[in-house]
Amino acid sequence: MGITNRIVRQQLLGRRSFSSAVIFDRAVKRQQRNNIALRAGAADYEYLKDEVARRLIDRLEDIDREFPFALDLGCGSGHIYKSLSEDEGLGGVKKLIQCDSAVETKRLIADEEFLPFPPQHFDLIMSSLSLHWVNDLPNTFKQILDSLKPDGAFVGAVLGGDSLQELRSAFILADQEREGGISPHISPFMNVPDAGNLLVSSGFQLCTVDTDFITVDYPDAFVLMEDLQGMGENNAVQSKGAPVTRDSLLAAASIYQAMYANPDGSVPATFQVIYMIGWSPHKSQARPARRGSAHKSLKDIGSATINHVDA
């Protein structure tokens, strides 16, 4: 069961399937990332990404080993680095390369869909709130696997399909009422079973997937949408349909307030975060026993006599 936390911020997207089809406009998403890198007060919008990076590093700390050479894929402004710096042991990381598609990051520039690294290059690859904007996820995950040394680890976090359900519902009702149809105003995200299947089908071993729900309170729906833009998490679907009209936007905000408002008048927004860990194959890793190799049958175990000994 996910851990539900609530972050209160004062005034200051459905599910997807995996294929090579182009869902997101990567040029638009790159421009959005560049815009937020240049935006005045950009740090005011980093609270969610900082929190998710902190939780990702918490999971990394559970792995009792060192990683001499690590990559932060889709680093943004360095959320993972900030969390690593707060950890006394640096999560076992000795050297970190930061990589993002936004030009203004002043680090290594690369597209998550076309990784420029040689095979078996990194001991650890991390990615926090970046890969859910990739079109061909199976191909990207295979590239990540190829870039890892044997027994190397991938630790990632993406937004899940239950994110922003309140905003989705408000827009659906507003569009039906004012436009007579529905347009995709929020990008689709993966769900938990798909994350596990993606890791396994890409060739990762010893895979684990878990999820958190983070609830953030906003003064109103307009502040939420402004913050999504400030985070670079606004819509980037290739075929957006008709742009949202002012009438539908006002209706969606009103519906959001009526359906979900807190007693103090603020509105909650739920973000589902899916965390993934997978390992590149190595002969030292535990493997399931060959089918039929057991020396005892479950039938024999079930019929065994249990003797109780009194102390």
UniProtKB/TrEMBL annotation:
<dbReference type="InterPro" id="IPR029063">
    <property type="entry name" value="SAM-dependent_MTases_sf"/>
</dbReference>
<keyword id="KW-0489">Methyltransferase</keyword>
<dbReference type="GO" id="GO:0005739">
    <property type="term" value="C:mitochondrion"/>
</dbReference>
<dbReference type="GO" id="GO:0032259">
    <property type="term" value="P:methylation"/>
</dbReference>
<dbReference type="GO" id="GO:0032981">
    <property type="term" value="P:mitochondrial respiratory chain complex I assembly"/>
</dbReference>
<keyword id="KW-0808">Transferase</keyword>
<protein>
    <recommendedName>
        <fullName>Methyltransferase type 11 domain-containing protein</fullName>
    </recommendedName>
</protein>
<dbReference type="Pfam" id="PF13489">
    <property type="entry name" value="Methyltransf_23"/>
</dbReference>
<dbReference type="GO" id="GO:0008168">
    <property type="term" value="F:methyltransferase activity"/>
</dbReference>
<dbReference type="InterPro" id="IPR050602">
    <property type="entry name" value="Malonyl-ACP_OMT"/>
</dbReference>
